[in-house]
Write a structure and sequence with these properties.
Length: 204
């Protein structure tokens, strides 16, 4: 158990270093978007956008993706294409909540367990199941970690993960019990959150 915990500490520090590199600014000639994280950081410092927990997670996620796009060192959690979600959400929330490294590690381990379930029963491969196989899985993993950071229990973590994954899926109506109550609620909340985060990165 100690070996696993210390291995995750190493992984957490790689993620953290990448995020700090992304916030400081990255450059790479062969990419479409300029570095996003420094713009978000500046917007926060100038109080154009507030430094709240969601914005901190958006900043950290953007920073990780900036590093990935500039060919920096990242952790594929669960994939390179979705490497920002888990560390962005968990390390961002932990930073905002002033939680210590051990709590962050426990949250990353909780996220990893959801990843194990998905890997055993499905796939992370966008080539097989579309982009949401990557980012949806990353979101489900992040939900378990965030549940830990916010003091939730196992049942709550599994519920949060399932709802996050469910909100990421579907090209047709995904009714549960012949009703649209659950999937529509989750997808609407997810869409509102995405709209907010994407607006931030656009106006920063």
């Amino acid at each position: 158990a100690d070996h696993v915990f210390e291995k995750m500490r190493t992984i957490s520090r790689i993620m953290s270093n990448a995020i700090q590199s992304g916030i400081a600014g990255t450059s790479y000639a062969d990419r479409i978007l300029p570095a996003q994280a420094p713009r978000l950081k500046t917007a926060t410092e100038k109080q154009i956008i507030p430094d709240d927990i969601v914005n901190r997670m958006t900043l950290y996620t953007s920073a990780m993706m900036d590093v990935k796009s500039s060919m920096g060192v990242i952790v594929a959690a669960p994939t390179a294409g979705s490497c920002g979600t888990v560390p962005g959400a968990i390390l961002g929330a932990a930073s905002y909540l002033h939680l210590d490294e051990d709590e962050t590690i426990k949250a990353l381990l909780a996220a990893g367990m959801i990843g194990v379930f998905i890997a055993a029963r499905s796939t992370f491969a966008a080539e097989v199941a579309g982009c949401m196989a990557e980012t949806g899985s990353g979101g489900a993993m992040a939900s378990a970690g965030l549940t830990h950071l916010l003091g939730g229990n196992l049942e709550q973590a599994l519920n949060a993960s399932a709802r996050t994954l469910g909100a990421s899926l579907g090209l047709v109506c995904d009714m549960i019990g012949d009703r649209v109550e659950v999937p529509c609620l989750d997808k609407n909340i997810s869409a509102a959150s995405k709209a907010y985060a994407n607006t931030l990165t656009s106006i920063a």
